[in-house]
Structure formats: structure tokens, C-alpha cells
TrEMBL record:
Function statement: Removes C-terminal D-alanyl residues from sugar-peptide cell wall precursors.
EC number: 3.4.-.-
Transmembrane segments: 12-29
One GO MF term: carboxypeptidase activity
Name the record gives this protein: D-alanyl-D-alanine carboxypeptidase family protein
Residues annotated as domain Peptidase S11 D-alanyl-D-alanine carboxypeptidase A N-terminal: 75-312
UniProt keywords, alphabetically: Carboxypeptidase, Cell shape, Cell wall biogenesis/degradation, Hydrolase, Membrane, Peptidoglycan synthesis, Protease, Signal, Transmembrane, Transmembrane helix
Family designation: Belongs to the peptidase S11 family.
Keyword Signal in annotation: yes
Range of residues in the leader sequence: none
Length: 449
């Protein structure tokens, strides 16, 4: 290349460098819009933003059309005997109706559903368990097996759930964890895993009990109607031992002997709801002087499943009040709630990019881009699912591909029913001196050729 050509090349390089640096400076001072429209909503000055709610596309044929007014829309509450009560959708875990459902109360022998499911998950049903002196001295109702005798865990579970024997609960607890106290810790740990924050287990059988924490705080054996329903849902819908749980709790009668064949025992199921209606799936009764009559049950009409939880449902002689409350709540569920399908498009969104080298927005998608997020839920007429976009206000370049961009929350009547996470689908470089120099080198290489 001659001197004239070299001079021209240098002038071009200088010009391009000046242009690049000028653009870099402009990029750092160019005005930014006060608000960006992202996924259909205006984003303001917070780091993370909640977008406008977006309604789902609804399959209207999937729900029986009924003119229903919800309790929260002004309907008169049900007249229930129970101090606390819950009607829950067994499929989704959504509370459909509640009365003081978050009030902490003692729960008596409904406790034993937790004892049973832990024994099934952690124990071997064919193992023999020895009856300790502590177990043998438990108050009635009890199996009455003498201290030192050995009983199969499987048989003890029938004793626990059919007859609600208090001594059998202690034998199971000592077999699983070595002591009542250690088993109570296991129960509380499982409760937290299930999502119960207001449940405290002190005994495996539900007898009224109080204690003091290391900090000197008084606690008692207790739960809420909402969390008791959540625990039963875990037992029947979530636990890997749900089939075994249902087999035991649905059995009418069970007879067995101890390991030596010295004593024979027979148990009859005291959950009368199983005989009252074929729609009863399972349940557990309970009573103590502090708790009153308590009950937890699951019912199904073949398509829809409902869980009913009752705490403080009367004291003697009102033993039958719980059956009245169960009927009212179950009837309410069947009359008001029907399955309906909701579907949302998993949209691609554009998020503002600050100091980007060659773009001012960056694309983000969900984990399932272009697909629909579908839900099939028990809902009352007029209820609609909504999507709330919680996305970053903006990205600061440089940005890597796959960076977290936010999430979409799917809700029904304020309750979370699903979440989708969003991430960037591309990288973005930042305006900088090194970026400009790389561009200059690229241009220089092009002219060199």
C-alpha cells in the first residue's frame, strides 16, 4: 500500500474511533424514558416490579354454570358448631371455606394421623415393637398390652387409627425415635416440611399437654383447622405411603396377636362417617377435655375431593355435632365448586437495558417459552385465575445469557397456584473503551484485507 493509501487508512481508523467514542459518550448520557412498558404493565422505579394482572383464557365449558355468591362476596356464613373449621380442595390444597381457620387450638386424637404417616414412612410394618412401662401406663382409651410384650408395627397402626389407642401411639413413638420427646421433634419437623407454621406436637397420641421452651415460653400441643387439613392432605395425596395410610384408615375391623401368641386383640373402626356415606374416603375422630370433639376427614363424589377439619366441635353430650358440620361443609363444597380449566401463554418479554452497546432492551423468556401454563382447579362461579409479572425494572450491561429476569405468579382469589421463572435468552455487551477498541480493530482488519 502506498503512502497515500496508508494516510487514507489512518484517517478512516481515526474517524471510526471518534465515532465509536462519541457513541459511547452518547450512550452514557442519552435520555432514558421515565417508564417502560413490560409484559403489558408500566414499570416504575423499584428494582423488582409487579406487572398488571393478566386473566387466563378460560375453558367455560369445563365448569357447570351456577349462580353462586361466595362468602367473601357477602354470603351469610355457614352455621357451624365447631369453633374452627375448614373446607379444603383435596387436589390443590386451597381453602374453600374457613371459620377461624388460623386460630390455634388443641386437636386431641386427630394428632394420630401424623403419628401413623411417620410410622409408615420411617418404620418397617413387619417389625415387632416392645411395649414399655411408660406405654403400658397410658390412660384410656388403650389397647392394654402388658409391658414387655411385643407387637407388630402393622397391627399397632390398626390399633392407633381404628380404636385410637393411646398406649399404641407411645409404643410406635418409642420404636421410631426412642422416646416420646424425640418422636415429637420428628413430628414437628415433618409439620414444618409440610408447611405448618402454627402446629406444635408434644405427644404422639394427642392428649392435652403443655411445656416450656428453653427460652421460657409456654407452648401446648395444638394446631389450626387449616394446618390439620394440610396434614391430612399430605397423608392422602402427597406421602409415598398414602396408599398404605388409606388402607389402614378405611379398614372396618382388624384382629391380631402379640409375638408370643399369648394375647389376642381386636379393633373396630370408630370413624362412623365411613358407614354414613360411601363418599367418605378417610377420617379420624378425637376428644379431650381441653380440645372438645375434633374431626378430620376426606370425602369425594368420584371427581371432586374435599377435606373437612373441625376443632372444638362441642363437648359432651354433643358428640354428634361433628357429623352435622361435616354434612354442611361437604354440601357447601359440592354446591359451590366445580372444576374449571385456566390457561396462560408463557410470553416473551422485553426488559430495558441500560448502557447496552448496541441495544436498549433485552429479551427474557420462561422455562417453557411459547407454551401454555394450564391449571385445572375447583372454583366457584365468577372466580378467575390471574398472572402477575414480577420482572426486573432494567438490566445493567453487560448481561449474560440465562441471567434471572424475574418470575410470573399465578393466583386464584389471591392464593398462589403456580410460579414460572424468567431468564434472559441472549447476552448483551456494555458501552466501554475496550468495546470501542475491539470495534476499531475489527474495522481496521477489514480495510487491511
Amino acid at each position: 500500500m502506498g503512502r497515500k493509501g496508508a494516510g487514507m487508512k489512518n484517517r478512516i481508523i481515526g474517524l471510526m474511533a471518534g465515532i465509536s467514542i462519541g457513541f459511547a459518550a452518547w450512550g452514557s448520557v442519552r435520555p432514558q424514558p421515565d417508564a417502560w412498558r413490560v409484559a403489558g404493565s408500566v414499570q416504575t422505579g423499584k428494582e423488582w416490579q409487579t406487572a398488571e394482572k393478566e386473566q387466563a383464557v378460560v375453558n367455560e365449558t369445563a365448569v357447570a354454570q351456577k349462580s353462586v355468591k361466595m362468602k367473601q362476596d357477602g354470603e351469610q356464613p355457614l352455621s357451624l358448631h365447631a369453633q374452627s373449621a375448614v373446607l379444603m380442595d383435596a387436589d390443590s390444597g386451597r381453602i374453600l371455606y374457613g371459620k377461624d381457620e388460623h386460630q390455634i387450638r388443641p386437636m386431641a386424637s386427630t394428632t394420630k394421623i401424623m403419628t401413623c404417616i411417620l410410622a409408615l414412612e420411617l418404620g418397617n410394618p413387619d417389625d415387632f415393637c416392645e411395649v414399655s412401662k411408660k406405654a403400658a401406663t397410658q390412660p384410656k382409651v388403650k389397647l392394654g398390652a402388658p409391658a414387655g410384650s411385643r407387637l407388630k408395627l402393622q397391627d399397632l397402626l390398626y390399633s392407633l387409627m381404628l380404636e385410637s389407642h393411646n398406649d399404641s401411639a407411645v409404643v410406635i413413638a418409642e420404636y421410631i425415635s426412642g422416646s416420646i420427646e424425640a418422636f415429637a421433634e420428628t413430628m414437628n419437623r415433618k409439620a414444618r416440611e409440610i408447611g405448618c407454621k402454627d402446629t406444635t406436637f408434644l405427644t404422639p397420641n394427642g392428649l392435652d399437654a403443655e411445656a416450656e421452651t428453653e427460652a421460657g415460653e409456654g407452648i401446648r400441643h395444638s394446631t389450626t383447622a387449616a394446618e390439620l387439613a394440610k396434614i391430612l392432605r399430605y397423608c392422602t395425596e402427597v406421602s409415598p405411603k398414602r396408599d398404605e395410610f388409606l388402607t389402614i384408615t378405611r379398614t372396618g375391623n382388624h384382629a391380631f396377636s402379640d409375638q408370643d401368641g399369648t394375647h389376642t386383640y381386636s379393633c373396630r373402626n370408630h370413624n362412623a362417617l365411613l358407614e354414613m356415606t360411601q363418599e367418605a374416603v378417610t377420617g379420624k375422630t378425637g376428644f379431650t377435655g381441653g380440645a372438645g370433639y375434633c374431626y378430620i376427614a376426606q370425602l369425594s363424589d368420584g371427581d371432586r375431593g374435599f377435606i373437612v377439619a373441625l376443632l372444638g366441635c362441642g363437648w359432651p353430650p354433643h358428640k354428634t355435632w361433628k357429623w352435622e358440620d361435616v354434612r354442611k361443609l361437604y354440601r357447601y363444597g359440592k354446591e359451590h365448586f366445580f372444576y374449571q380449566e385456566f390457561a396462560f401463554e408463557e410470553k416473551q418479554v422485553q426488559i430495558p437495558l441500560k448502557n447496552g452497546a448496541y441495544k436498549d432492551r433485552i429479551c427474557a423468556v420462561s422455562d417453557s417459552p411459547g407454551e401454555k401454563r394450564a391449571f385445572r382447579l375447583l372454583v366457584a362461579d365468577g372466580e378467575r385465575a390471574e398472572a402477575e409479572y414480577e420482572l426486573k425494572k432494567e438490566f445493567q450491561a453487560p448481561v449474560r445469557e440465562g441471567e434471572a429476569a424475574g418470575r410470573v405468579l399465578y393466583r386464584l382469589s389471591g392464593n398462589m397456584i403456580g410460579v414460572s421463572t424468567y431468564h434472559t435468552v441472549e447476552a448483551a455487551e456494555a458501552w466501554s473503551l475496550s468495546y470501542c477498541m475491539r470495534k476499531v480493530v475489527t474495522i481496521w482488519s477489514f480495510f487491511k484485507l
